[in-house]
Amino acid sequence: IDYQEEHLLRKGVIRRIFKRRLLLTLSEENIAENIIKDIIRSGHLKNNSVPESKIDEIKNIINHFKFLHNGTEELDDWLTNIATSAIEETLFPPTSELLLAELMFFSIKNHLEITNQTISEEDITMQLYIGVQRALLRVDNNQLNYRLFQSIYPNWHNHNEAECQETAQNIPKIKNKIERQLRHPLAPYFFNLCNRYNTIFYLIGDLKEATHSTENFESMLQSSQHLEESTKEQYQKRYGRERKRLNRLAFFSVISFLLSKIAIALGLEIPIDVYLTHNFSWLSTIVNLAFPPFLILIITSSIKMPSDKNFKLVIAGINYVLFEETNHTYALKMARPKNTISQIFLRLFYASTIIVVFYELFKILLALHFSIANMAGFALFTSLVAATGVKIKNRARELSLEEEKSSVPLFLLDVIAMPFVTIGRLAITGLAQFNILVILANLII
Questions:
Q1: I need a surface site. Which of 100, 187, 285, 333 has the fewest CB within 10 A?
Q2: Per-residue model confidence as pLDDT tens digits over 127-147
């Protein structure tokens, strides 16, 4: 099961409620109110916490969604996701988060230095905006679609009929423009840059929240010692929260893989071995069941949190942001564009690595008398573990501003792990398309 942030789980609930109400509600008069009540019943919204004026705001969103939907039936899912995100942000306005994202955007934009690539100013602005949203606010593509759409039509849910008609005509073009930016080949560079520095802005947000008022915050900035002491306190709190989150994520990953592997073994692998191939082995079954959770346990236990010297980098980064007179740059060094021969060579290298790694794996498993069903299950779950392990490792590095040291053993380990990570990511993406799995997971959680 792919790990998701809490607000993404909430958005998924709102999307299902929204689609169900559109499908089942006969009277359109109370649909907005019923959607809000369903969200309250789901536990994602406290009772008596929303003013009744929100009903009219949700009603406006739904009415404009229906108008746009009627004009562009082929964009059903895209518009549904736009409306879902609009409903969520109306009920859970992310005011502080968006202000923090704005601070991060302009802080980096004003000191950004790009090398090795030529990129238009519009693409820089869009990619930096997307990178900040993904790295700082942890939004998914649906929320990004909405926020980029809203930046073009900020008042779309209050448009009159003529304006809605114009918007409906432009939606296919706007969707293509947004999706081009979401698939931009240089997007990973901007995300990695923002992801490296997001801790600085998280802590600025923590400092602002801890001081409770603008006056106290400004007073703290007057004393470098007070700022450093307060930052260290918030840093240690965030460090503790991240450590607990990492341990929790690791624990549930182990349980998830163990239960999933048992279910697959009982439902598919053992029946195939017993009734079709007649090649059942207790040894291969036990190894197959135990290895994925054991591997994720090894990966998570080997992950290290940032060292003590990381705090000095953090406090320096905060000073760069809060005191603009400090001279600094955010360096974005991109790989030089590869020629056709280099691209062909790299693809052949990746393809041959995948073939060699899985060939050697299957040779080892055959020597251990694994059946075809067991080998397929072992390869799939090892790949899922590898992809999950990389994700957990990246989460653990979020607090760190230290440069990651490279070495020959680490490079070789990456080369061997790469095929498993690639297959695992594809499998996770594919499994996420089965809504029944997501619904069951959300219900259990």
A1: 333
A2: 999 999 999 999 988 899 999
Of the candidates 128, 42, 23, the one whose C-alpha atom is nearest the C-alpha of residue 88 is: 42
For residue 211, the number of C-alpha atoms closer than 13 Å in the C-beta half-sphere is: 20
Q: Which residues contact 179 (CB under 8 A, 6 or more apart)?
A: none
- For the chain, the residue count is 445
- In this prediction the pTM is 0.80
Give Cα separations from 251 to 254, 263, 427 (angstroms).
Answer: 5, 18, 21
pLDDT at 200: 93
Q: Are 91 and 39 contacting, i.e. CB atoms less than 8 angstroms apart?
A: yes
DSSP 275: I
Helix (H) or strand (E) holding 358: helix 340-367
- pLDDT per position as a tens digit, 26-58: 566 788 998 999 999 988 888 888 898 999 999
Strand, helix or coil for residue 334: coil
Q: What is the pLDDT of residue 1?
A: 47
Which of 88, 94, 92, 90 shows the shortest CA–CA distance to 17?
Answer: 88
Q: How far apart are CA 239 and CA 259, in angstroms?
A: 30
Note the helical H segments in 212-281. Answer: 214-221, 224-264, 270-271
